[in-house]
Amino acid sequence: MTRTIAVTNQKGGVGKTTTSVNLAAGLAQSQKRVLLVDLDPQGNATMGSGIDKRALAVTIYQVLLGLSTADTVRVRSPAGSYDVLPANRDLAGAEVELVALEHRETRLKGALATLAPQYDFILLDCPPSLNMLTVNALVAADAVMIPMQCEYYALEGLSDLVNTIRKVRQNLNPNLEIEGLLRTMFDPRNTLAQQVSAQLQEHFGEKVYTTVIPRNVRLAEAPSYGEPAVQFDRACKGSQAYLALAGEILLRNGFGQAA
Ligand code: ATP
Ligand code: MG
Predict the structure, then answer these.
(1) Which of 91, 18, 71 is nearest to 49 (CA)?
(2) CA 95 – CA 98 distance, rounded (Å)
(3) For 202-259, what is each residue's pLDDT tens digit?
(4) What is the pLDDT of residues 118-171, one digit of tens each?
(5) How far is it, in rounded angstroms, from Cα 85 to Cα 183?
(6) SS3 state at 145
(7) Ligand 1 binding pocket includes 40 (Cβ within 6 Å)
(8) What's the CATH code of the domain at 164?
(9) Is residue 89 part of a domain?
């Protein structure tokens, strides 16, 4: 069975892409077959996987518009032992163009259907908004992973996202689950972060991953080398946390002991 996880939060810069890339590479290091789908015109997950977004003739954009198949567009991350459906700025146009098309919310789901059996995990790196691309991700996904910083406004933003998830469940994808909430860029010395973290656990209980991702400069440096941090510097604290997260996700999804 393939587990498709949308990594999403409409708030910008919370660690969605860092999580998607390092989780993809971490799961691949555990011999899992992984496809990472870049749904952001910024193309950060593409670049962070070592793929030059400017050199691509076809991307997820053509796939969503039905001009290419996912099979022909996917590329192997040279740095990470996983496959990528890449994106670049072409995708910015898709938002508008999709609106005019039939089945606009189910385009991604349809495009992934034939590929899905080839993978254990499909990770969808969402853009920082609740737009048609994010809706496509929520329709294609089995579950949502929400990276978040433990800041004052974090919980407020979360309620918008939870409402969107509820609407998608009602209308388009009744089985959509919340896979988990991930605390990112965490600084344990920050009292506010501790308080927000405690509130999260109170509200969401076991949905909050045990693994916490610390603030770690190596995670921020890795993309400039075109490598996931778990590949670039496996020993650093940030990489160790993402490898622990991969282990936690394997256990949660019934893959037994992480490798
Ligand atoms: P966007 O909403 O723009 O897509 P995002 O949610 O995908 O952003 P990232 O791009 O993953 O967020 O992270 C935002 C910035 O923070 C990046 O510069 C990234 O390198 C850095 N960053 C992410 N996680 C960490 C961390 N744990 N420690 C230090 N820096 C981090
Ligand atoms: Mg991003």
Answers:
(1) 18
(2) 6
(3) 999 999 999 999 999 999 999 999 999 999 999 999 999 999 999 999 999 988 754 4
(4) 999 999 999 999 999 999 999 999 999 999 999 988 888 898 999 999 999 999
(5) 26
(6) strand
(7) yes
(8) 3.40.50.300
(9) yes
pTM of the predicted protein model: 0.97
Q: Is residue 74 within 8 Å of residue 36, measured between CB atoms?
A: no
Tell me how many domains the chain contains.
1
Are the CB atoms for 89 and 41 separated by under 8 Å?
Answer: yes
Position 257 scores a pLDDT of 56
CB 87 within 8 A of CB 45: yes
**% of the chain at pLDDT higher than 90:** 90
Q: Which amino acid is at 105?
A: E
User: Could you tell me the two tokens for 121?
Assistant: 């995990």
Distance (Å, whole) CA 22 – CA 79: 11
pLDDT at site 68 = 97
- CB 150 less than 6 A from any atom of ligand 1: no
Domain residues for the domain of 34 are 3-252
Residue 238 Cβ inside 6 Å of ligand 1? The answer reads yes
**C-alpha of residue 6 to centroid of ligand 1, in Å:** 16
Centroid of ligand 1 to alpha carbon of 176 (angstroms): 25
Q: Phi then psi for 150, rounded to 5 degrees?
A: -85, 75
Tell me if 225 is assigned to some domain.
Answer: yes
Q: Which helix (H) or strand (E) holds 190?
A: none
Query: Residue of the nearest CA to atom 18 in ligand 1?
Result: 220
Other C-beta atoms within 10 Å of 244: how many?
Answer: 17
CB neighbours of residue 121 within 10 Å: 23
